């Protein structure tokens, strides 16, 4: 506040009260000045009241909030409903211009300031989270899937003409697959392989290199129906090479038992074959391990093997590499934003310029408010709490597994998600109905794969998936109940058919439950979830025992009775025969 105004305040309330206010106000100003000068997160966050006051002050820079302003254009920031205007603190122009989503708007310097400051603080956030070599980033008001599509389109423009294939290390999440279809590209799915030392599914580097040499042939050999749908003949397959590839699309954090992809090794292959690399880091910023993996990949492409905490983006990476993260999954804001980042300022800026038109500013305001509120210390505290909750969840699931004769899958490389196999609750093979087994075997012989699941397997699958419904009814959201390939029909996405979809594998055999310890979770959440899961598992055990094991026992008893009756009948027949023979004699 202006000093002259404060002088007049003294006339009303005296010097002492004004001085106290000035002291508090000076501290806030210094804190804000440090953020603006350094472009870094505050060590200790701002209060919500201070952030609201800051937003109201900055919004007064936009033309729609000027006194006596008159707009005669088509888009003048008009808002009909006042509570909507208040909800947005008067920011109504959005961000960017028609030619660049990060450009300054002449009508909206306040909104532009918010946009630039948010992107700068996000860059500091990514660097502090484990990737100090990141040179540039920007927030785009689209969720992760569409943001990946934007990156794919930008990368395609920088590849040789005719490049259309994307090598995709399989992750069973539909938006991860549809982002390639939306970009009018041809996905080449690469199946994962099981780690011989544990239960997790890992990157298939051998298959990736095979596909890098000839993507069309790999698709032709491994996905013949897809190749036919895209008119890929044997002649085309024989002439394809790595120049036909737009990029390799990998993933960091994901649903267990899938492990984060081996980013360093994949980037080495990208360098070897001169192919771009796009990393889906949807909720990986909350994992220091995943961020270190991205940093390692970034150093490979920039040729910088030493720490470079303030990479200014002047280096010329040998290949294109981008990584994308969700705002809602990492910063706990409403869905609607993603952060596109990379190790080349020029590359990241080219993605921003490809975005058509202006964009909603809502995700930007949400993220800026959150970053200012948590500060560096708040972020580190959240990361620590996430780690504590993960360890607590892991230990509790181990104890629950012992109690119910289940198995917690060993997935040491996944720092967020866990998988509890429920195979131990299912009836054994000899408890299944004979006619259903014969039906299944006949179908397998006819189809080559159990595409028509037997009635009994369908019934079992229904009981297993009921766990998720049971937990949801009890107020537990986020639990995934996953059926293996042997218990479900193929899932069709466009012209692709995936076996065992949701399990990340076409040869999966175990049904399991996914639970995650993500950022924002509390230890009490873990404890309540375990209690409710225990209750749901007990219910499933009773259901299966009554449905299958008791029926099996009844069938065995009936068989015993039938055998006894047959024996009695045979004995009576033998006696009658002897009597008849005696009479004849």
From TrEMBL:
This is O-phosphoseryl-tRNA(Sec) selenium transferase. Pyridoxal 5'-phosphate binds at residue 75. It is found in: Cytoplasm. GO terms for cellular component: cytoplasm. Gene3D superfamilies: Type I PLP-dependent aspartate aminotransferase-like (Major domain). It comes from Trichobilharzia regenti. It comes from the Eukaryota. One of its GO terms (molecular function) is tRNA binding.
